[in-house]
Amino acid sequence: MIAVIVTTGYVPETIAALMLLVAGCVLGVVSIAYIRLDNVRIFPEPKKNIRLVTTGPYKVVRHPMYVSVLLLSASFVIESPSFVPILAWFILLYVLLEKIRIEETLLSQRLPEYNEYKKRTWRLIPFLF
User: Fold this and answer.
1) 48, 64, 74, 126: which could join 57 in a potential S-S bond, CB 3.0 to 4.6 Å?
2) Which residues does 75 contact at the CB level (< 8 Å), separation at least 6?
């Protein structure tokens, strides 16, 4: 998402879209700093030597990088609230929720402490989900 923003020169015109964009970028960078870039994966299967990160944004939310992507993409939707961008955002949400479902199953199998971690953190949205 950041590459799209940089290469297209996307600058939000509304304050709401700008706030979503900045929040998404900051959360994404902070999340990657805590989990380390070499642990970032596109596919939900965890690395063989995975370690559970429970500090920084991961202390509150189990999937802050997905939240980051949703915030960044929501900035595009706010700028152009029509059928296609809204539909694309909901498709992205569905894909990420499916990825989370698979990823959490695999993490629970690989890391015994993951189930306890799930009990004390939110999946995506604090106090809601």
Assistant:
1) 64
2) 12, 17, 18, 20, 21, 24
